[in-house]
Amino acid sequence: MQFIVHNLDSTDSTQRDVQRLAAAGAPEGTVVTAHHQRAGRGRRGHEWWDAPGQSLLASVLLRPPSPPAAVPQLSLVAGLAVAEALELVGVTARIRWPNDLLVDDRKVCGILAEASSEVSREGAGRLHHVILGIGINLDQTEFPAPLAGRATSLRLVTGRAQDRDAVLAAVLAQLERCYTTWRTGGFAALRAAWLAHALLPGQIVRLPDGTLGAGEDVGDDGVLRARAADGRLLSVVSGGAAEEATVHAAGH
Predict the structure, then answer these.
(1) pLDDT for position 79
(2) Is the dihedral of CA 159, 165, 168, 173 positive or negative?
(3) What pLDDT score was predicted for residue 124?
(4) What is the pLDDT of residue 198?
(5) Which residues of the chain have a pLDDT value below 50?
């Protein structure tokens, strides 16, 4: 996969920029980065805060030949890719299911996967594209009050300033590797590596009924197995891509 990177100084949202490019027919591997987002978003509609020039903010366009049901796995694929990229710059991060990365229990990276599908008149679904939004805290030395106890940066962890271009190159290289492996072997081919970087077992997760449970494992299909308070073992699909999915009616 060849990456085509568009570097912006400031934008409302790199996700929106790539969405527009995707609708115009941009190829897989199109990337938009920005030094600052005025309206960045995280999962579940939360605002993504960044200080200008201190974060790596990137959105990547993928066009996998997969059914829409496979999309949530890409949140896990992206989390593994970033974890491996951070190792290359000397930082060991753990994946908090489905797609946050933590260092010493503080968030250093968040990932947002958004999928767009087409539905034919016969009701069949076809995946149009997936946009992976990746936000990594690079050079922050402090955070606003609501985040101060929950966030960290590569600079705080390593004690040195970060090379944004080098981190981006590492992320894209690992994403290409993980994505290629996923396309040929599914999540099963990445499961062991993902688990080796994850906080499972034992991570507290929210179950489909809104209660809390303890994550135990992730299957070859990327589905979380979590234990409810009453002892039931439940399956939980990653919401990172599915909950953000947008469906467009096809014209045929």
Answers:
(1) 97
(2) negative
(3) 57
(4) 97
(5) 42-45, 240-252
Q: What local confidence, expressed as pLDDT, does residue 171 receive?
A: 98
Question: pTM higher than 0.90, yes or no?
Answer: no
Question: For 27-44, how does the pLDDT look when each residue is reduced to its tens digit (9 = 90+)?
Answer: 999 999 999 988 755 444
Position 107: which residue type? K
Contact between 249 and 124 under an 8 Å Cβ cutoff? The reply is no
* Region for residue 25 given its phi and psi (left: phi exceeds 0; alpha: psi -120 to 50; beta: otherwise): left
CATH class of the region 4-199: alpha beta
- What's the chain look like in SS3? CCCEEEEECCECCHHHHHHHHHHCCCCCCEEEEECCECCCECHHHCECCCCCCCEEEEEEEECCCCCHHHCHHHHHHHHHHHHHHHHHCCCCCEEECCCEEEECCEEEEEEEEEEEEEECCCCCEEEEEEEEEEEEECCCCCCCCCCCCCECCHHHHHCCCCCHHHHHHHHHHHHHHHHHHHHHHCHHHCHHHHHHHECCCCCEEECCCCCEEEEEEECCCCCEEEECCCCCEEEECCHHHHCCCEEEECCC
